[in-house]
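Ticket #503: bound-state structure for 2-acetamido-2-deoxy-beta-D-glucopyranose.
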Amino acid sequence: MKKKTHFELRFLHISLLIAFLFGASVSVSASGIGHGRLTEAETLYIKQRQLLYYRDEFGDRGENVTVDPSLVFENGRLKIAYIALQAWKQAILSDPRNLTRNWVGSNVCKYKGVFCAPALDNPKIRTVAGIDLNHGDIAGYLPEELGLLVDLALFHINSNRFCGTVPHKFKHLKLLFELDLSNNRFAGKFPAVVLKLPSLKFLDLRFNEFEGTVPRELFDKPLDAIFINHNRFVFDLPDNFGNSPVSVIVLANNKFHGCVPSSLGNMSNLNEIILMNNGFRSCLPPEIGSLKNLTVFDVSFNQLLGPIPDSFGGLVSLEQLNVAHNLLSGKIPASICSLPSLQNFTYSYNFFTGEPPACLALRSFDDRRNCIPARPLQRSAGQCKSFLSRRPVDCSSFRCKPFVPSLPAPPPPSPPIVPVPSSPPPPVVRPLTPPPPPPPSPSPPPPPVYSPPPPPPPNPPPSPSPPPPIVYESPPPPTPVYEGPLPPIYGVSYASPPPPPFY
Ligand SMILES: *[C@@H]1O[C@H](CO)[C@@H](O)[C@H](O)[C@H]1NC(C)=O
Ligand SMILES: *[C@@H]1O[C@H](CO)[C@@H](O)[C@H](O)[C@H]1NC(C)=O
Ligand SMILES: *[C@@H]1O[C@H](CO)[C@@H](O)[C@H](O)[C@H]1NC(C)=O
Ligand SMILES: *[C@@H]1O[C@H](CO)[C@@H](O)[C@H](O)[C@H]1NC(C)=O
Ligand SMILES: *[C@@H]1O[C@H](CO)[C@@H](O)[C@H](O)[C@H]1NC(C)=O
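RESOLUTION: The complex was predicted; output attached.
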């Protein structure tokens, strides 16, 4: 089994190598390295690039990298990497911490933030395996040439000011394992190119300006972590949501609406899910109760209705439960507050009418602004009366789709995608040959996510500052802007909140 995997990888690598050499030759001739006269095709290519310069949506701004013939490179791949990194340097408009100042000369492995490791397919040569410019405060964009870095396993640029779109040529990064673009200024549609990355396990797009829908194929990919919170996605979760094998998924602070899908109950790897501050409007599906490994469940600041299902008593690993700021009602099931690991249960700002004594014994709980008799800080009698006199909630009226397991989407037609073993170990971190450890540590490494963590880097990666601790609460990749508490209720940051129907 392993053998086969490895074989496939080698095969993949060889075909990629060919593709990359081909790609490189295009790039080289287009950059005027060949000193002869330009052919008509080359002129056209350059023209097109210059045209594209003004057409940002293609992500190709026409960098012009020439390689000084006097430069000597350790191997051909590092020369290609030089082209990619120099193109990137040209696309950097501001680098206040001078991180790219030493990006000169042929020794790209010495460039700050660039990490080399033995190539997977040829351990005798070094290639660029990781990039970590986290917390660089760099302004600029990502040039298409970055697609030349085909040996890249880690690409971490969180907390910078990169804008524009994600280059289409990222599709060549077949070994990319972790992609962290969080806390930048990327915009436009969901970067569909990530769907073409067969090795990707960790996808972090949070705190950007992506908008529109999220392709349903995302949930059929063998990802371990998805962070897309704090963008502008507007979307109903599709019925294949439950196919996702993620252990952590954070969708908070977008404009997802529709149902909390019952297929959640099939996400047996799930450890943490945060759906807070969207527009979900349905009941809580009882299937959720079967998630034995779930530790964090947060659906606060939505418009969920109905009771908390009794089945939630089956969430035996649950530590943090937040259902606050919804329209939930009924009595809190006693089994929930007796869950062995539950530390913090927040159910304020709903319309609950009863809570078992066990809840009051929890280490931390918040039952304010409900309709619970004899408890302090409840809603007014009038509010409770008007809400509770309405017709009882009919959960089937939301017409939430039942879970229909869907087959994974067929691979995109054009690029030769080699299927990747869906379970760990990811190719990058456990090759048969002496492991070339991917260099920088995962940037915001949610400790639970990486059960098989990438082996330690050869030299400790001098990450500019310690990665933000990520766990619960969609940890803002640190920007002062997001450090404050969430907006009090629907409204402030939530663009067009359907006004709460009551009071
Ligand atoms: C690229 O840059 C070189 C030198 O920096 C210049 O001679 C050449 O004309 C440029 N080519 C294009 C297409 O801009
Ligand atoms: C970066 O380089 C500029 C110019 O040499 C210098 O003025 C500035 O202080 C440097 N910034 C840092 C953070 O080192
Ligand atoms: C999803 O869960 C349902 C009910 O638990 C089960 O019948 C179904 O087979 C599951 N599907 C998958 C793909 O695991
Ligand atoms: C749940 O956690 C246990 C222990 O942590 C682990 O052995 C098991 O494989 C996990 N189950 C799933 C489906 O991830
Ligand atoms: C409990 O969870 C709520 C909501 O996430 C949070 O605001 C509060 O600080 C937590 N309390 C403790 C003691 O962790």
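RESOLUTION NOTES: Residues 1-36, 49-59, 408-503 have pLDDT under 50 and may be disordered.
TICKET STATUS: resolved
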